Amino acid sequence: MKRLFFTFAFILLLCSTAQARTITDDSGRTVAFEKPFTRIISLYGAHTENLFALGLDEQIIGVSTGEDYPAAALAKPAFNARDGVEKFLAAKPDLILVRPMHMRTYAGLWNALARHGVTVVSLQPDSVEAMFDYWRALGALTGRQTKAEYMIEDFRDGVRRAEDRLSTIPVEERPGVFFESIHRKSATFSPGSMPLFVLEKAGGINVAADARPRHGTNIADYGLERLLDKGNKIDVYLAQHGTMNDVSVGDIVNSPAASRIRAVLTRNVFLVDEHLVSRPTLRLLEGIDTVYQLLHP
């Protein structure tokens, strides 16, 4: 019933909206367009994953190097921001999706492409609420607004199921968790970030709730001294694992003074795929389930 409502609402919206549409991207730029984009190059794995979730396989004509999810991404031509203007133009894209970091670093490339009529949009949400707006922006750019609303509905339903599962576990029985973002810096995640959302919905208590974020990132410096001061409260030590944090359980348990951390002594040190906890995709629900199983075996 809810899906019929969304479909009807968006038919009315599209019928009543002027031909030109606009969005404001995460670099603060207003992007105007008259029709959905149909030849898209995605230079961020989350963009790619969400475009596939929106049913845009045929409209994706390129992805960033090293992408492997979903499997269909492997069949797409690979691009990166160090490629020349000519390679991008040869593919005849009408839209290139990037992150704000790439927008700043490779401004000359994007400006050159814009002069050739290619639209470049910078998007990267930093919280779950911002993720919903991000999905809506992708839906608007591609003419898949209704599908984007379905994604939001599915995500919220998944979160409600996770919350129902937690209702049987009293707060005082939930484990204290340190969630590592970057091992070499003893860093954790910023308040309100997606990994800490995953941790909360999986039934963990963040022992580093006093962490302060770095400006403009989801990373929060914590430091070894503060970490060890909380050692006896850390029942479970989680670390995101991937490009951002190429760490092993051995690296953690053999760190200086790691024996002062309860989770090390009880062998409750675990790695979690960063794609399941840090990327703004529907797979955050899989991340919640994965972390729940680690915290409540």
From TrEMBL:
Fe/B12 periplasmic-binding domain location: 39-297
Domain of life: Bacteria
InterPro entries membership: ABC_Transporter_SBP, ABC_transptr_periplasmic_BD
Keywords of the record: Signal
Stored SUPFAM superfamilies: Helical backbone' metal receptor
PROSITE patterns, per the entry: FE_B12_PBP
GO biological process: cellular response to iron ion
Pfam families per UniProt: Peripla_BP_2
Signal peptide stretch: 1-20
Protein name: Vitamin B12-binding protein
